[in-house]
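Trying the structure run again after the queue cleared.
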Amino acid sequence: GQVALEEAHILLINNGSGVTGIEALKNLVLPGVGEFSILDSAIVGEEDLGVNFFLEDESLGKFRAEETVRLLEELNPDVKGHAITEPLESFIQKDGNLKPFTLLLVAAPIDYASLRKIRDLALASQTPLFYTHCIGFFSHFSVQSPPAFPVVDTHPDPTATQDLRLLKPWPELQDFAKRMSDGLETMAQHDLGHIPYVCLLLHYIEKFRSQHGKLPESYKDKTAVRDMVRAEGKDEENFEEAYAAVLKSLNPPTIPSAVRDVLSAPETQNLTSVSSSFWMIAKAIQQFVTKYSVLPLPGAVPDMKARSNDYITLQQIYKTKARADCAEVTASVRSLAKSTNRSTKLEIPANEIENFCKNAAHIHL
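Done. Tokens:
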């Protein structure tokens, strides 16, 4: 969220008294929006000084856009502001004038013909458009989004981000679980009570498979595994954790329908040299899913009863696998950038790819 804010360039098309739009910009300048521009050809008059906090007596007779930009910049020296004093009617007639901006904010009153032209230009450039009209205590606003507006939930429910892959473990996780649960039936009580529950569940999953020749995927099968845990648990806390986790953790990795919609979207399939980083990474994720039938591993491990060194080892196993998955996605992103002749100036940062991989299960349109 903060990265997107810092990379944003917002255009305020100011009209009327200009107060509502300026106050909206103030709330974006303070947290650190990257850049903003104000399109306003009005000259500061006496009436402006009484209603606009971002004007002063010395502003009288000067362009309102230049004065408000100057005073807004004082709020945050890291933010760059630009004043456009050209009349709106001529500005919107020029091709490409709205392309540099990531968001358009239109403050009413504005004539309908100009608003319609701005709306059409915003649709053509796939730039989000906010329109607001405020009169005293009454206000109205509307939002026009591009046809495809991707969203990444970077703060999902922590329980929703846990993907332990217990029904599809990789070799390193399997080996660790076997070492931790080796000799479980004859293990000393103290050692038994410090086996991470992930290892316990992998042990009982393997035991179920050896008895039934299949993985425990149905509710009946999961109940059988849970009964095994309860029968051998001996009232240890880690066995209680394993018992409680059976139903929610013993699920095969799936691709949510919202994620499939993103991966199959035209924007993902038809990349260009200027496609947004979202679609470029989504295409790389789609290639990963095609190859492995799963999303990249997030790598998060929940808290559990275990010895510190065993828990750290388990964390490292998950983190190492998550890094390996992310590295493969990153390599695909670089390959796609090369194949589309993407400019090096538009290189996608590695941390953005990493965050996308961690939250891949929570993207939607």
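The mean pLDDT is 90. Worth checking whether this holds up in the mutant runs.
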